[in-house]
Amino acid sequence: MYETAIGGRQSTPSRYHHVKTHAVVCAGDTDGTFPCQGFFKRETMAPRMRKKLKTLGLKEGDKLTYKCEARAHPRPEYRWYRDGVLLKKGKGIRIKMGKRTSRLQINKVKLSHEGEYSCEAFNFLGTDEVKGKVTVSKCGEMLMGQPYIYYILDKNVRTHHSTFTQIARTS
After folding, report:
1. What is d(CA 51, CA 128) in angstroms, rounded to the nearest whole number?
2. Rounded to two decimals, what is the model's pTM?
3. Which end of the chain is more exposed for a tag (fewer CB within 10 A), N or C?
4. Torsion angle, CA of 152/63/60/89, rounded to 10 degrees?
5. C-alpha distances in angstroms, 48 versus 83, 96, 128, 134?
6. Would you give the DSSP letter of residue 39?
7. How do 126-137 and 56-59 pair as beta strands?
8. Which UniProt keywords apply (predicted)?
9. Average pLDDT, whole number, for the chain?
10. Do residue 97 and residue 37 come from a single domain?
């Protein structure tokens, strides 16, 4: 795929000159000149994700944010899934599309938001996907963390082994 960038230049009589980022095509005219047409070459490519999605351990009421970014030409479109089901905007789910990114946001997560999230980037050349797991815990529930066991007393306070005397280390 080539996009026209330069026109009408005079050049030496080479029929086709290829450079890494552009190409120049010249053809002889009857008056002895060789007008050239230049093209910048823009490589097409299927989407390739830049980063994986992280595994998140959240509490009820926390904010969930995932960002997805892919390199591709032409620009890819994005889709978000939870446990293989296509997500749509609404019911507290926000999906924002940028020029080269997509962002999924849930302002107040619930237990029902737990699962495997995936972002899919696609164009006519192909598809790429990244996945991340989200676990959601209730207040007062025990979370296994590294290297300690955590207790969530309320949605804003976490307490670990230094507060409790007989909590086992997990490492």
Report:
1. 11
2. 0.61
3. C
4. -170
5. 22, 19, 6, 23
6. E
7. parallel
8. Disulfide bond, Immunoglobulin domain, Signal
9. 76
10. no
Q: Pick left, alpha or beta for residue 107 (phi over 0 → left; psi -120 to 50 → alpha; otherwise beta).
A: alpha
How many angstroms separate the CA atoms of 80 and 30, rounded?
59
As given in the structure block, the two tokens for residue 18 are: 């290829």
Residues 66 and 99 both lie in one domain = yes
- Tokens, residue 94: 């926000």
Q: Amino acid letter at 42?
A: R
With 0-12 CB in 10 A as exposed, 13-18 as middle and 19+ as buried, what is 34? Answer: middle
Rounded distance between C-alpha atoms, residue 15 and residue 61, angstroms: 66
> Same domain, yes or no, for 93 and 133?
yes
What pLDDT digit, counting tens, does each position of 6-59 carry?
444 444 444 444 444 455 566 666 676 666 666 566 689 999 999 999 999 999
Q: Which among 10, 18, 11, 15 has a CA at the least distance from the CA of 27?
A: 15
Query: Cβ-count burial of 161 within 10 angstroms (0-12 exposed, 13-18 middle, 19+ buried)?
Result: middle
Number of domains in the chain: 3
